Fold each of these.
Amino acid sequence: MNAAVFGITPFGCTIACLLKEAGVDVAIIGPAAKAAQVNQSGLTVRQTWDGKVITSSVPALANLNFTPEIAIFATKTQDTLASASAASPWLSDSIIATIQYGTKIEQVVASVLPRDNIVTCVLTMGANCHRAGDVTLNFKGDMVIGKAYGASDEKVDKLIEVMGSILTVHKAAKIAHFNCTRLLLNLPYCIPAIIGEKVQTAFADIEISKVAILLLQEGIKVIEEAEVHIENLPDFSEASLKTLLAAPLDEAAVHFGDLVRLMSKTPCEGPVLGSIEHGEVSEIDYQNGEVVKIAEILGFPTPLNSLMVELVHELENSNKFISKKHFLSIVSDHLKK
């Protein structure tokens, strides 16, 4: 069995390292500078819950130069089209796995690669990279796997077998619904990026957690308006989310902050702040921005998620975080309009 993992990202590096440890012949594909760093230092995954450090010597390539049995796209959504296009001559017969960071990655891949080879994966992992190839794994999470298009059961089952060697996996019939659930749960992570604080620190402030609850309330209304069912993830239930969002705002905010602090023993950047800190474009357009796009089609207002998209783009351009006090003032003024 051989595999190619696209994306020298937290998910990509973790999966490549764990697959190598499990005996899979794997290479990782990414930008030349990051590939050079991985070739020099190897891949390292540091598990925070038990202190275990996993190291693997995985070849890193700027461009794919072989035909893998499994091609795993763990790229950020905005980088996926270029990666898939460049690799397309090698992937006509490969099982193609897409791992969601934001949304629509399988649609992007399907625009240049055989759609019936694509199997979608939704991963609940918490991971951050301090440099290319060096990952802090805050929690391993589970993976839900299903077909986005017309992939055969044989392809799905083969991917489940391989991913099951490194993760706890679950087979799903309606994978698109799981994508929407993951999208919803990602909505608050823009806030730590805007104020420049780790996730646990940011949401220890009840006023900041109130904004997170309001974002989730707005997001779930959009998803329900779109008539998409929220599927239970292995570590998340629809009932618990709806109970949280139905509680009085102060109570819900305190509970949300407690849940976030229990996620990991070490502070997490979250996906948006992780991109900002590395000087990269974030996936805000494929997370909060996707909710805004869906709402626009439905004629449904999303003032708070729209504001988050605007503030993250301002941050990307200015590279300047704003204080909690200023952030809360902006949110308050915006909601009064």
Note: Residues 200 and 261 are 5 Å apart (CA to CA).
Amino acid sequence: MRSGQAIFQVLREISLGILPTMSRATTATRTQRERSSVRWGRNPLEVVVYAVTVPWLHLLARAPLRFLYAVSDVVSFLLFRVLRVRRGVVLENLGGAFPEASPEEIRRIAARCYRNQCDVAAETLRMLVARPEEICERVEMRVDIARRLQEEGRSAIYVMGHNANWEWAIPATAAAIPKLTLHVVYHPLSHAGFDALLRRMRERFGAILSPMDEAPRAIVRLRRRVTAVILVADQRPPSRSGWRTPFLHRETGFLRGPERLARRLDMPVVFVEMIRLARGRYRLSAEWLCDDPASTTAGEITERFARRLERQIVAAPDDWLWLHRRWRDRRVERATRAR
């Protein structure tokens, strides 16, 4: 079981980019020399995992997608049916979000979720070597709003969730609007080597990456360019710092960062929807979330994002990332341990 969990963790860390983030203090104070010293891992096990894993990932990335999908089928079957890695978390998340669904339907959605996320891992790995044209052929673009903003010389904030293949939104948009600067705001991975690998995947297509706490300064530096600031904004916020709202039948915290950036810099906010049409085929659409952030009240933009994201998840529940502990409450856990 432990070996299966290790394999699954590597898949999540490298291709999904949802590792626990480094604290702001750690990020701010770590020098380049210190980062280099842990580039391969913070302990011998991490070094071995990284050294063994990365060459195989580069080799797999060169395989045709149909081969990667065959591997995805095998891996998803093992993870869900045999090893049952995080299966309890997924079923609990789905059960809370869809209380009216039968246990059989919940299990069917969960099985499709594992398959879809393994497909996303395979497609993300392909970004190591894929040509932009290869990805563009598989993503239907409906981004008239983004084109119009670019033509008007207006930068904007683009928010989306972990739906379908969110990673392919970067190369698809870069090819569709080549004059638009893509500025991806992200949470660094705790492993410097895998973080660099994910950065290289995205930067191959012209994206500029900034850690979340450096985003405002980076946006100011890029103010002379027409920029699309891209944030995947459905992650769990730190305790007490998020906007709380009912979401999928539970009170849920949302990151305030996108709204604060929009209101502080008076940048319009656009919702990005990535929909899976078929295996390896997607549609990316852009729609207004807020054109005048300065006139909104606190929490209004975040609330609009939560409602729009909720509709997307309900329409295609197997395409969201149910494998993380989205509703984990560390305060309750600490109180329980203290008893």
Note: Confidence is low (pLDDT under 50) at residues 1-37.
Amino acid sequence: MQTQSDSSKHKLERDRIGDDEGLVYAGMSDIGLERPVNEDRCESFPTQTGMCFLVLDGMGGADGGEFAAQISVDAIKRSLRGDLGLDLAEALTNSYEEANRTIIVRRQGQRFTEMGTTVVGVLIEDSAVVIGNVGDSRAYLVSGDEIRQLTIDHSYVQQLVDRNEISREDALPHPQSHILTQCLGSSPDIQIDVERYWIWPQRKGEASDLIVLCSDGLYSMVTEEEIQHVTTVVPPQQACEELIHLANSRGGFDNITIAIIPLHGHLKVEESPTWGRERASRERSRLIGAWWERSFVHHIIVSSLLAAGASLMAVGLFFYLRAL
């Protein structure tokens, strides 16, 4: 995909998009300019525990990376749609563990012995948000003129940064920046980093915070400042197109994937003032739904038994009258 965009100078002259103008979710994945297949995945779907957004970057050569990313998406969907009434963080963790088990089982086949995938995901239920990652696909928070990385890479260079052996600025161009310390499929006992946040209401006239999910094909070619600027001056769909175009214009050496999630509020670590009411309302809805399901099934069983009894009585009456 080669999306035409404004020049950098023109983009700098545009005003910030106001309030929630054009702020709807957008996600896009591009093969880039050098890879034969797209091993990335970008997905969004409703679940029993909220709305889920995912970005995955598969690896493993030939069909392995593409396969690992896709079966992980399928496993996460299956898990989240089956987990009823679970805490958001627990539900997201369980889904990643299910995806990890699925890949490990499938790696027994000779074609897929080296396959795996990164994953970064967001699960949102009312004002509650959880963000989880395994590998080096990232989540950023864009808030006004600021951008902040919310996830920590599971990579060799991140360990060097943590030990103060290299600076954060030296991590991306480091010759071993591609080495992961873990990903889905790398081990039965993976570390899943999950953090909780809440969405606080925004005041009239304030710009909404955005969560940006992306694979390394984007952030290795586009700076954080460029991600912040583009996502705050154009709507999400156009921002995805422009950022992918920018990454491709600089080489497009990898698959490029980005998802932009408007929060229609501000992301904070403190529990939102509306969460208690939202949780109580959801619990009431869940209990009413469970009661209705039991009641509905009960009515079906009783109706079936009554119908069967009536049929037997009718047959008995028929033979009784015939015998007279």
Note: Residues 275-323 form the longest helix (49 residues).
